[in-house]
Design brief:
The structure is a single chain. The chain is an alpha/beta fold and about 250 residues long. It has a single domain (about 5-240), classed as Rossmann fold (3-Layer(aba) Sandwich). The protein has nine helices and seven strands, in the order βαβαβαβαβαααβααβ.
């Protein structure tokens, strides 16, 4: 049966790999992101694309109207949008507290608010029974990211997912979180990473390799399947054991 899939951050990295996994099943996919040109180049067969800033309520209302028109019902909602904030304009001025306020505000807007707004806007359109809501967290939610803000903004998704799972469970809807570790071939780390840092991240894993977008996409795809119907309010780590440390 063809399902309707909505994926934020669907133009690159994990979101794109996930979109391709669902499209290969013949599902209808809507890709959301801020950069129209990136979405258009994604090349997911048959996918719809829509550019929107999911941190802005007005843009999210536009997404909700589009979903109502094109899909009606949402079977799977995947929140892959977010980031470290390196693509955002820097803080104005040199005041240290202004920089702190800017960094934390950006992190929570990108990683937490965007997911909350889209979920709340589409909640009543989730298929029942069988609807799936899937959030992308991070290993940083468990052990920090060096800045505090990014890890905290991802960790905030965990209690939100638990609350949603309780709220939506009676409708036959599951809510889960996937927390990746180091994943190569994404835009998260910018244009390049020092080889020493890459080697360090790989050395932290138990299986001795970097993660790939497909690793996370496969987990999300399974959590959206009938086989995972009794799994909800869980945080699944996909990091090759790196969170346990060495």
């Amino acid at each position: 049966m063809t399902r309707n899939i909505v994926i934020s951050g669907g133009g690159t990295g994990i979101g794109l790999a996930t979109a391709r996994a669902f499209a290969e099943d013949g599902d209808r996919v809507l890709l959301l992101g801020r950069r129209a040109e990136v979405l258009e180049k994604a090349g997911v067969p048959g996918a719809l694309t829509h550019a929107a800033d999911l941190t802005e309520p007005a843009d999210v209302r536009g997404v909700a109207r589009l979903v109502a028109k094109e899909f009606g019902t949402v079977d799977v909602l995947v929140h892959s949008a977010g980031g470290s904030g390196q693509l955002e304009p820097p803080a104005a001025g040199d005041d240290p507290l202004d920089r702190v306020a800017h960094a934390w505000t950006v992190a929570f807007r990108l990683n937490t608010l965007s997911a909350a707004l889209l979920t709340e806007a589409l909640e009543e359109r989730l298929a029942e029974p069988g609807g799936r809501v899937l959030f992308l967290s991070s290993i940083a939610a468990y052990r920090g990211s060096g800045s505090g803000a990014y890890g905290a903004s991802k960790a905030a998704l965990h209690p939100y997912a638990h609350d949603l799972a309780r709220r939506l469970g009676h409708r036959g809807i599951t809510v889960n979180v996937v927390a990746p570790g180091y994943i190569e071939d994404t835009d998260f780390f910018g244009d390049a990473m020092a080889e020493e840092r890459r080697a360090q991240l790989i050395a932290e894993t138990s299986n001795g390799r970097a993660g790939r977008p497909g690793d996370v996409a496969a987990t999300l795809h399974w959590l959206a399947s009938p086989a995972a119907a009794h799994i909800t309010s869980q945080v699944i780590q996909v990091n090759g054991g790196a969170e346990r440390g060495h």
